[in-house]
From TrEMBL:
Entry similarity comment: Belongs to the group II decarboxylase family.
Protein's UniProt name: Glutamate decarboxylase
UniProt source species: Cannabis sativa (Hemp)
A Pfam family that the UniProt record links to this protein: Pyridoxal_deC
Biological-process GO terms, alphabetical: L-glutamate catabolic process
Cofactor(s) recorded in Swiss-Prot or TrEMBL: pyridoxal 5'-phosphate
Record gene name: LOC115712924
Top-level taxonomy: Eukaryota, Viridiplantae, Streptophyta, Embryophyta, Tracheophyta
Amino acid sequence: MVVTRASGGGGGDGDEYRSSDYVHSTFGSRYMQGPIPKWRMPVQTIPKEAAYQIINDELMLDGTPRLNLASFVTTWMEPECDKLIMASINKNYVDMDEYPVTTEIQNRCVNMIAHLFNAPVGDDEVAVGVGTVGSSEAIMLAGLAFKRKWQQKRKADGKPFDKPNIVTGANVQVCWEKFARYFEVELKEVKLKEGYYVMDPEKAVEMVDENTICVAAILGSTLTGEFEDVKKVNELLTKKNKETGWDTPIHVDAASGGFIAPFLYPDLEWDFRLPLVKSINVSGHKYGLVYAGVGWVVWRSKDDLPDELIFHINYLGSDQPTFTLNFSKGSFKFPVKLFVCLLQYLVLRCLLIFFS
């Protein structure tokens, strides 16, 4: 089945007919004997089977997801995952009281990731983090936490708090630029140079001033996939903090490398083993046999996430703390895909250990 769009066309009597404004079916059916308006609701209804055919046929003009090798996502999952997704797609995850098991599974995922990234969380403690719609939302949430923490300290010290900035490399993903523009934070970018396409730690720390809310290091550059030297940034920034009396922290954007480094480079120090790393974001849908739209942000401790950013909702009888930019979302993403993603990574880890 194919959908075509004819152009041109004539009209008259003050009601010009332009066939480019209509959807035409190449293959006729008794349910679609005439064109369907493209920009307005049709006057007549059509059966669900015909509506499905029209939309499904038009979607055939899209690219084939299985052939998508260019956008950092995995476009195939096991049939069992598809079944779990469809079984959970009608759950609105924001209603935590209504779907407590969904919430519990997400909390398990957050704790698994926190331990994977060496967060200082005891066996009887609950890690601080949240599932997001990819790393873009995760970065927004982490950035807001840094901005609010910085503002609180500046207010307490009686200093101006209207000109926050963040230091990154020029190789950051566009979501960092969005964060800076949306939430009024100056983006100070370390320029790249020939043969060195990641953020230079020394230049980055040089750009830090009293208004810097954090330094953002990238574990898996969008341009080349390279890991930035987070340990070096931590060393230089620790020294500068001691000299200036500041406490500028580090955020690690591990969208591309967070689920690779712990398995392939377990001795590489980039995560919460470094004292100044206060939060980490990671994407679940990169290289993990998981559909797009899965991410997390995890904080080092409760002190690193200002409580005033957390909303406590009591719609259904109990406290529901929430920190998110997406207020309604299907549970098929949170936590079904999250949990499946983690299970696959755990299998990968076992295989790596077995063959090493």
